[in-house]
């Protein structure tokens, strides 16, 4: 079984900080729990990242991206490049994020 390396882009790191920061304003305990859930869920992409569906993008977008759902609320968009999983964005599915993908 192939094991993939996980790389999180600077944009995805910012997205993640915003998601956890938002929850932190409500509850430190909930934010800690969410951070652990992201850690575990992103780590699971090390094995068989192809299990998640392709995220439909405009045809002009140069990469095939897959989407991985965390906590039923967050969409992790990533690409598979050789033996690497590159996390490109982490978006809150409860928000309109179409404008970010254009």
Walk me through the structure:
Helix 1 runs antiparallel to helix 2 (28-43). The protein is α+β, with helices and mostly antiparallel strands. The chain is globular. 30% of the residues lie in helices and 28% in strands. The protein has a five-stranded mixed beta sheet. The mean pLDDT is 88. A hairpin with a 2-residue loop joins strand 4 (74-81) and strand 5 (84-92). It has one domain (5-101): YaeB-like fold, CATH 3.30.2310.20.
| Integer-rounded radius of gyration | 14 Å
The fraction of residues in strands falls at: 25-35%
Number of domains: 1
Query: How many H/I helices?
Result: 2
- CATH superfamily heading: RelE-like
The biggest beta sheet is recorded as:
5 strands, mixed
Q: Structural class, please? A: alpha+beta
Question: Quick gist of this model?
Answer:
Helices cover 30% and strands 28% of the residues. With 102 residues, the protein is α+β, with helices and mostly antiparallel strands.
Overview features:
five-stranded mixed β-sheet; alpha+beta; 30% helix; 2 helices; single chain
SSE order and pairing:
Blueprint: E1 5-8, H1 10-24, H2 28-43, E2 54-55, E3 65-70, E4 74-81, E5 84-92
């Amino acid at each position: 079984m192939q094991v993939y390396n996980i790389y999180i882009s600077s944009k995805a790191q910012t997205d993640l900080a915003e998601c956890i920061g938002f929850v932190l304003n409500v509850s430190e305990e909930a934010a800690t729990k969410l951070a652990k859930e992201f850690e575990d869920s992103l780590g699971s992409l090390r094995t068989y990242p192809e299990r998640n569906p392709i995220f439909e993008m405009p045809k002009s977008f140069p990469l095939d991206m897959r989407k991985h759902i965390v906590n039923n609320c967050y969409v992790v968009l990533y690409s598979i490049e050789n033996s690497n999983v590159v996390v490109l964005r982490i978006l809150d599915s409860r928000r309109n994020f179409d404008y970010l993908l254009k």
